[in-house]
Structure formats: C-alpha cells, structure tokens
Amino acid sequence: MAGLSLVATVLWYSVQLTAERDRALAEAQKSARIAAFLTSIFEVADPYLTNGDTLTAGTILKRGAEKMALELGDQPETKASLLSTMAAVYLNLGLPAQAQPLIDSALVFYQSGREPDTEMARAWMVKGDLHLLTGEYPASREAYQRAQQTYVQLDEAYRLKALEALACVGRTLAKERRDEAAEAVFREVISGESRLLPEDDPQRSEALENLGRVLRHSGRYGEARRVFQQVYDIRKSHFGEQHISVANVLHEMGMLYQRRRSLDSAGVSFRASLEIAEKVYGEDHPEVATSLQVLADLRKDQERYQEAEALIRRALDIRLKRLGSQHPLIATTRDFMARILRRQGRLEEALNLHLEALALKKEVWGERHTSTANTLNNLGRVYSDLGDEAAAARYYRQAWEIYVENLGPQYPDAATALHNLARALMKQGRYAEAEPLMRQSAVYQAQLMGAGHRRATNELGYLADCQIALGNLAAADSTLQLKLSLHQPGEGSEGDPEAYRETRERLQELARRRGLPAEGKP
Predict the structure, then answer these.
(1) Which one-letter DSSP state was computed for residue 115?
(2) Which DSSP category does 157 fall into?
(3) How far apart are CA 385 and CA 374, in angstroms?
(4) What's the Rg (C-alpha) of the chain?
(5) What are the DSSP calls for 44-88, one per residue?
(6) Are 371 and 361 in contact (CB under 8 A)?
(7) Residue 388 to residues 17, 141, 280, 426, 431: CA-CA distances in angstroms?
(8) What separation, in Å, do the N-terminal and C-terminal C-alpha atoms of the chain show?
(9) Which among 455, 457, 461, 462 is positioned nearest to 424, based on CA atoms?
(10) Is 251 strand, coil or helix?
(11) With contact defined as beta carbons under 8 Å apart, do 102 and 83 qualify?
(12) Measured between alpha carbons, how far is 43 from 57 in angstroms, rounded to an integer?
C-alpha cells in the first residue's frame, strides 16, 4: 500500500509539473506571437517604409487594429491580450471612444466560459480605467471589483494584485465623494498589505497616499498631514529626495496646505515637487505641466495673477507639444487659464477659452459628461460677470442637470451649480423659481458641510431673501431664526459673532415690517 501511495504521489506531482510546464510553454509561445505582431505594427512607423511620412500614435494603433482583425482570427487568446493593451494605450492618449470597442471585444472573449487568469483581470482593470476616465463611476467600480475577484480566484501570488484592484475601487469611491466608504476600502488595503509586505515597503505607501487624500477631502487635515509625512519618510528612505514618487507626495502635501490656507507652505511643497519633476522628466514633459498647473492655481489664490498666467501658459504649451491639440487635458488647461483671466477682469478672453474647452470636451467626452458640466458652470460665472444673468442661468442649469444625472444631487459640484442657478434667477427677479432651488441648496450644503458651516447658513440668508421678495414674511422670519440659532454661541462652540449680529439686525428689520416687537415675536 505504501508503494502504491508513493507511486500515486509521484504521478500527481508529475501531472502538476507537466501542467506547469505546458502553461509556461503556452505563455512563452503567446509572448512570442505578441512580440512578433507588435514588431510588425511598429514597422509602419519606419520612415523608410512609409515614404518619410511621420505617423501619430493614434494612426499606428488604428493600423494595428486593422492588421489584427486580418491576421489573428485563429489566435483569439493573443488577440484578446493585444486588444487590452491597445485599449490601455488609447486611454493614455486621452481617447476613450477608441479604447472602448477594443476592451469590450477583449472582455467578450474572456467572458466566454474561460477559467480566470491574469489577462482576464488585466482586461477588467482597463475597463475600470476607461469608465473612471469618462466619469462613469459605478461602472468603473464594478469593473475594478471584477478584476479584484478574478485575482482572488488565482493563487496566493496574486494577493497583492487583488489589493491593487481593491485600491482602485477606493479611488472610484473617492471620485464620487463617498469619503467614508473610500476610507474603509483604503484601510482594508493597508491592513492586507501589512500581512504581505514589510512595514516600510514603498509599495505600501500608495495605499497610505490614497488614505491621505480622503482624509484631506474630509477636512481631517491633521490626520492627513501625519499620513503624508509617513509616505514621504518611506519614499525618501528608499529612493532618495529626488525621486518622482517623492515629488508626488510633496504635491499632495501642497494640496493639503492650500486647503488649510497655509499658502506659503503650499508654495514650498509645490515648488519642490516641480523641481524634482523637471530633473527627472525634463522641462517639457506632461508631468511637469501638471506641477505647473497646481502651482498656477496657488498663485491665483494668492492673487498673483501674472505669475499664475505665465505658469499655466507654459503648461498649455507643453501639453499642446506633447499631447496634441485634441487631448482632453488641453480643454482642462484652457478652462483653468480662463479662470485666471476672469479673476483679472479679462472676461472676453476667458469666455473664448471656455467655449474652446467646451467644444473639445463635447467632442471627446460627449455632452453629458461631468467634465463638460465643469466648463458649463465656468461659462455661467463669466456670463454672470458680464451681467447676462439669463445666459448664466442657462449654463448653470445644464451643468446642474448633468451632475445630478451622473453623480446625484448631493455631489458637491451639483450643489454648487444649484446654488449658482438659484442666485442667477434671483438676480433676474425670478424669485418664485429661485425659492425652491435655494431651499434644496440649503439642505444639500447642510448635509455636505454641516448645518453651522458658513456656506450652509449663507443659503438660509438667500432663502430668506426669496421669501421676503415673494411676500412670505412669516416664512422668512422662521428661516432667519434658524440661521440665528446656528450662529449663536453655545456650549463648546464660539458661534459666529459677526454673522449672529447681522442676522439679528435682519430679524429686527423684518419685525418692523411686520409690525411686531423688535425681537421679531408677537
């Protein structure tokens, strides 16, 4: 019996080794086929074979897709892997419309009853990246979850990959401003990595950096500062002070200082990040343009508009040179430059830049994308500054409807667009239309910022303005009484003495109009 057991064991291991050898051989053969195919694709970029024509990356990819359809019909596995790769390249070029049919075709193959493997997981990750780029966050989250589940079904060697996919789920939640859910996911990733990696492993710093961003968005600045410092220390000790990953965390720390209005400290962090990026990439790299834009944003906040304009113009020049005029980042950069010009009162220039950005975003993203809504909202602000509140209201309404459609009414940008729309209607004297919108806005701001936050209580003041204009003086009194109570000093709170005084004076004036005692009560 012992002999039979030994033979069975040897046979089992022989089968396993044969399977492993066959899998390795199949992978090697697939890699060779992919390498040969890619070589044939990029031969079309050789000027000696194309009569000296210079081809863009998009043209090369397009010809590659056509060649693949003709030559790889009997090699579906190789074809699916290449489709995923080419889709990822299209996404890096800012061309989601071209990427989508490729990754969808790859996933048709991977979902046709195949056993889970790494290529299937990679395809789901590309699908998640696609939807994240186009602002379709629920679909993005679902794709990343499918990738995570696929990695989990593989052996222990892919546990870190599964955690990376889970981190992408967290980033999608953060994009949706679901900070509590995102924080829980990132803490789960950190916990999982702690069981697989040493405490100071630089790979762990990615999840920590994600956590720091969520803490910053949540207003927990002290916690965020400690997390970013931990990330900085890990990366500096492993890579040195001049590594690009150190520049990335300096960028995040600068964003934190800017949110806290510590603008000088933010400038130090942003400048240090920019200097590292220039040393690593050279002065005309797209990553340098990103550093230039955040520094320009800071200079705008500091009202150093000429510096801000010079920085953003340099960023635009880099992106035009390296990415081409049709890349979505060109629209983003023009939007940002327009905001700087608007601050300087150069409204016609700002208007033209926003309109250029809008046209490009509609072409790349479509008319119902949240990035398109950002530009519509910006256009509303310019028209408001120009005194055309009717046009401003039209743009604000379009932006608000797109945000609600994609992200829901309580998304911060949706709440801002709703406020802008209500104010534009008020400025036109359209108080009956503005009043219910301002009431909604007051509710959303209280939910987002807290009932006592100045932004939320300001909405109550505007709501009272609408009610007074409509002759609803009793309702206005109730609204202002609520505003007064939120500003009143109480146990553990200093309140807002200036806002409390102003609101009290408004209540007294309202009481006089109603023929009531000065305290506003019968």
Answers:
(1) P
(2) G
(3) 17
(4) 28
(5) GG-TTTTTTPPPPHHHHHHHHHHHHHHH-TT-HHHHHHHHHHHHH
(6) yes
(7) 76, 40, 47, 13, 17
(8) 102
(9) 462
(10) helix
(11) yes
(12) 13
* Contact of 130 with 103, CB cutoff 8 Å: yes
| Cα 354 to Cα 348: distance, rounded to the nearest angstrom | 10
Q: Cβ(453)–Cβ(487) under 8 Å?
A: no
| Strand, helix or coil for residue 509 | helix
Helices (H), 195-304: 204-217, 221-239, 244-259, 263-281, 286-301
Question: Given 3-state DSSP classes, what are the helix, strand and coil percentages for the chain, each rounded to the nearest 5?
Answer: 80, 0, 20
Q: Which residues pair with 492 in a beta bridge?
A: none
Question: Residues 6 or more apart from 358 whose CB is under 8 A from it?
Answer: 331, 372, 375, 376, 379
Angle between helices 118-133 and 96-110 (to 10 degrees): 150
Three-state DSSP state, 274 = helix
DSSP single-letter state for residue 155: -
Going residue by residue through the chain, which has 522 residues, state the pLDDT in tens, using 9 for 90 and above: 444 343 343 333 444 444 444 444 445 554 544 444 444 444 444 333 334 344 455 555 565 555 555 554 556 777 788 888 888 888 888 888 889 999 998 999 888 878 888 999 999 999 999 999 888 899 999 999 999 999 999 888 899 999 999 999 999 999 988 999 999 999 999 999 999 988 888 888 999 999 999 999 888 999 999 999 999 999 999 999 999 999 999 999 999 999 999 999 999 999 999 999 999 999 999 999 999 999 999 999 999 999 999 999 999 999 999 988 988 999 999 999 999 999 999 999 999 999 999 999 999 888 999 999 999 999 999 999 999 999 999 999 999 999 999 888 988 899 999 999 999 999 999 999 999 999 999 999 988 888 888 888 999 999 999 999 999 999 999 999 999 898 887 654 556 788 889 999 999 998 898 887 765 444
Helix 412-427 vs helix 389-407: angle between axes, to the nearest 10 degrees?
160
Tokens 């609408």 locate to 466
CA distance 430 to 388: 14
Residues 441/425, Cβ–Cβ less than 8 Å: no
Which residue, 496, 435, 487, is CA-closest to 462?
435
Structure letter (DSSP) for residue 276: H
Q: Are 322 and 330 in contact (CB under 8 A)?
A: no
| Tokens 């209201």, residue located | 393
**How many angstroms separate the CA atoms of 136 and 159, rounded?**
27
